[in-house]
Amino acid sequence: MNALHLKKGSSRKSAYNLRSTLGDAIETHTLAILVDNEVGVLARVIGLFSGRGYNIESLTVAETNHTEGLSRITVVTTGTPSIIEQIKSQLGRLVPVHDVHDLTVEGPSVERELAMIKVVGKGDNRVEALRTSEVFRANVVDSTLESFVFELTGTPEKIDAFVELMRPLGLIDVARTGVAAISRGG
Amino acid sequence: MAQQMTGAKMVIQALLDQGVDTVFGYPGGAVLPIYDEIFKEKKIRHILVRHEQGATHAAEGYARSTGKPGVVLVTSGPGATNAVTGMTDALLDSVPLVVLTGQVPTFMIGSDAFQEADTVGITRPCTKHNWLVKDTNELSDILHQAFHIATNGRPGPVLIDIPKDVQFASGDYTKKDDARLHHYAPAKVGDEAAITALVELMETAQKPVFYTGGGVINSGVEACETLRALVRETNFPITSTLMGLGSYPASGEHWIGMLGMHGTYEANLTMHDCDLMINIGARFDDRITGVIDKFSPNSEKVHIDIDPSSINKVIHVDVPILGDVGTVLEQAITIWRARGSRTNATAVKTWWDQINKWRAVKCLSYEQSDKIIKPQYALERLEALTKDHPNRFITTEVGQHQMWAAQYLGFEDPKRWMTSGGLGTMGYGLPASVGVQVAHPDGLVINVAGEASWLMNMQEMGTCTQYNLPTKQFILNNERLGMVRQWQELLHGERYSQSWSEALPDFVKLAEAFGGKGIQVSDPADLDEAIMEMITYDGPVIFDCLVEKHENCLPMIPSGKAHNQMILSSSSTKDAIDADGAVMV
């Protein structure tokens, strides 16, 4: 029976936007969680993931609506389709959570991450590092005679690729922000 | 102009505004200002328990027997940590509790002060929501929010941690109607299209069953009435989880008994073989489903629940309906009647013929003895001698006696059965009976207990005596941790590791020491008279019923098996559980 042809909505308000939950392939999803910016709210969200055995691949959080005091938490998580649905409804149950958006299924979205990459070297390595950074459109935000700090924005895959190229050229440290994501269009 | 008052007074004012008349608690340094207000106001009845865990279970008993939230007041540090078990119990069984804890003053938080604990940190996973209040101006608003959140949507425990300086300081009191109730407003009305899909299935189903849970009782008396009408008019069989007993009367002709691990043969086979399963306010708990892959393989499944996270959590359902059980049932019955109140009556009649064959197995029969009291017999006699009491309430501890009570006692109405289902908390029953008796002074409140569970919170006998609460502690004493022993018999080669009760107290003397009455009985011939003596005694009683020591609680779905692989009698228990089943709890 397939009696339900119901309008899809965000999972917090409706149990009906269930995709097929019968698959068991592991998927990666990016969730945008809108929460009251109150004490302990991040602990609630993280505690839910650890307490119920869900994965967090990446996590970013900052207040995005100062007048209403709302923060946006962006979580990249992995799991089977049924686990992903369960994560969304468990998040939706938390009292300070206003809305949960699964950017991976709710239409096209853009994801970006910022990284700062420190490379130490002399001679050819240094020249090659700088040349590669130009190809990736990274900015030099600090430089000494023997080091660069590159600032790079892009998808996590782009940052991974850049980091791998820097490794033989004297990479010594990487700081990454985690993924911020937003849906495309109006 | 908002009214100014101290934080401590705000607590009392908010409780009064919320209609609270009773608080279960235990004082300590960090809540003294609130206790001072209780002393001065004299409008709130405070029940002094003997241990903070007792306060939480008493509040649960109060809440589950009245439908109102239970209120707990305890101090910081150990007061709060002792309350953790009760809050976790309330979370798993969806019981509305408002727990107020004292905290060290704000300027000392984080300094490892005396009786300081990170209460909101510790209780975050075991409450529906919690707050640490750092400003007296916020306190009354949060108190009102707490009641709103505890009682709306799927009910549950909430906690407010109030530092001592916040209790002393003065601030603006926010009235109940002015409180910010957030965006927290779970939808009650179910989706019409989904409910119509349910009705269509009801019209054609050949082998339907209603599978109901605690959500029906939480939804209210009207929900139970609608359910009863729906069962009567459709002629469908109905079973219930442990938590839902009483939503449909046990004497009703459509009742096929409790389902699950220790449910009846007919209920479990009906679930296994049905073609339409209508889950109303239950959550496919592992005690119900048994092994998931073999759970009711050929049915369309409908699930009505107010909590979206319960839907498709364990079992994939075909028709999910999100909403309040009572409201959705009302919508469903309206649509079904409007479409002509149709069912596949012929097929349902054939279905009943099959169910009646399963019923004829008489799965609850047991071997009677005239020398020793069988626990089942004790409960059958308790049922016979108390079922006509107009105001009977049953609480239980956890273990074999709990399952026997569910099997052999009948519940005609909701809110008469208080047991720890989800968490399985030994030590729940005695304090819960305290809370029930406080709420129903004229009720006959019986705690069906095992001796081992009962000892876990036996200090609450003192509370019974102090407040003249005539609870009846009906202890089925087998000198064993009966359920643990049963599992060791079935799973661990009868190696009874640590599962017996040695050095038990003399329960008769213990009752007398607490200021109550003690009765011991060991001969089946004396049982009726002893039970009558217990019922008629005006005061708390400890009833020490010495029963068969190695009786197994049957029928049983062994772990790792399906509903149609039940063990029915003791003769069939050998090698009942294989290695895959043995890892399950």
UniProtKB/TrEMBL annotation, chain A:
Superkingdom of source: Bacteria
EC supergroup of this enzyme: transferase
Keyword terms, alphabetized: Amino-acid biosynthesis, Branched-chain amino acid biosynthesis, Transferase
Pathway membership: Amino-acid biosynthesis; L-isoleucine biosynthesis; L-isoleucine from 2-oxobutanoate: step 1/4; Amino-acid biosynthesis; L-valine biosynthesis; L-valine from pyruvate: step 1/4
EC number: 2.2.1.6
One Pfam family this sequence matches: ALS_ss_C
Catalytically driven reaction(s): 2 pyruvate + H(+) = (2S)-2-acetolactate + CO2
Annotated coiled-coil segments of the chain: none
Residue ranges of domain ACT in the record: 30-105
Presence of the UniProt keyword Transferase in the record: yes
NCBIfam families given in the database record: acolac_sm (TIGR00119), PRK11895.1 (NF008864)
Functional note: Catalyzes the conversion of 2 pyruvate molecules into acetolactate in the first common step of the biosynthetic pathway of the branched-amino acids such as leucine, isoleucine, and valine.
Family: Belongs to the acetolactate synthase small subunit family.
PANTHER family: ACETOLACTATE SYNTHASE SMALL SUBUNIT, ACETOLACTATE SYNTHASE SMALL SUBUNIT 1, CHLOROPLASTIC
Oligomer and partners: Dimer of large and small chains.
The protein, known as: Acetolactate synthase small subunit
Organism listed in the record: Amylibacter marinus
Gene label: ilvH
UniProtKB/TrEMBL annotation, chain B:
A Pfam family reported for this protein in Swiss-Prot or TrEMBL: TPP_enzyme_N
Reaction equation(s) it catalyzes: 2 pyruvate + H(+) = (2S)-2-acetolactate + CO2
Domain Thiamine pyrophosphate enzyme N-terminal TPP-binding: 5-120
EC top class named in words: transferase
Gene3D superfamilies reported for this sequence: 3.40.50.970, TPP-binding domain
Domain Thiamine pyrophosphate enzyme TPP-binding: 398-545
Cofactor binding comment, as recorded: Binds 1 thiamine pyrophosphate per subunit. Binds 1 Mg(2+) ion per subunit.
Enzyme Commission no: 2.2.1.6
Domain Thiamine pyrophosphate enzyme central: 195-331
The entry's keywords: Amino-acid biosynthesis, Branched-chain amino acid biosynthesis, Magnesium, Metal-binding, Thiamine pyrophosphate, Transferase
Protein's UniProt keywords contain Transferase: yes
Pathway noted in the entry: Amino-acid biosynthesis; L-isoleucine biosynthesis; L-isoleucine from 2-oxobutanoate: step 1/4; Amino-acid biosynthesis; L-valine biosynthesis; L-valine from pyruvate: step 1/4
Keyword Metal-binding: yes
Cofactor: thiamine diphosphate; Mg(2+)
Domain of life: Bacteria
Family: Belongs to the TPP enzyme family.
Protein name: Acetolactate synthase
